[in-house]
Known about the structure:
Layout: H1 2-24, H2 27-31, H3 66-71, H4 119-122, H5 145-149, E1 172-174, E2 183-185, H6 203-213
Antiparallel strand pairs: 1-2
Amino acid sequence: xxxxxxxxxxxxxxxxxxxxxxxxxxxxDALNCTGCHSIHYxxxxxxxxxxxxxxxxxxxxxNVGGVSALCLGCHEETKNGGAGIKPISVHxxxxxxxxxxxxxxxxPPQLLVNGRLECTSCHxxxxxxxAYRYLRVDTKGGAAMGAFCAACHPAKVDLASYGLKSQDxxxxxxxxxxxxxxxxxxxxxxxxxxxxxxxxxxxxxQQTNQQTKK
Length: 214
C-alpha cells in the first residue's frame, strides 16, 4: 500500500513538473535564434532569415514592411507569402506598420520603430521574455490584459486596479540593450530598436545592383 502511495506521489510530481516546463517554454524557445536570423544568408535587414513583404497593409498605401515583415514570414497564411504558422490576418488584427493617431493611442516614442507601430511595439519575441505570448507587459498569463493595453491606451484603463499611478510607471520588457540585459522597466528607460546599417540586401536587390554595375 505504501509503495502505491509513493508511486502515486511520484507520478503526480512528474505530471506537474511537465506542465510547468511546458508553460515555461514559448514556441520561439524551440525555434532557436536561427529561426528568425540567418548568420550567413540573410534576406532582410537585421540579419533576418525570413521577410514577407507581400502582405498589403489595409491601413496604408503600401505593403507591410519593416520588422513586421519578418513576423509575417511565419505568422501569415501561405497564400500570402507566410509559412502558415499560427497565421494572423492584418485585416482583422491590431493595426501594424503605421504612424499612430495620438487621439487613439498615446504610444510612448520608445515603442515605435522609425515612428511606426510595428509587431515589436507590442511583442518582444526573444526567448528571454517571460511574459504571456511574448507581450512586453506582464499580464499574469493573460488574466491582466488591461495592464498591457495601458501601455498605449491609459485613458481607457483603470490604472489603479493594476497598481499603477500613471502610464509612465508601467514596467515594459525589452531585451534589445545588451548593456542593460533583459529587463522590465518604464518605457523611458528601454530600447526596442537599435539603428544599425542596413547593409544586408535581399537577393533581388543584389541582382539588380549587379546588373546596374554591368
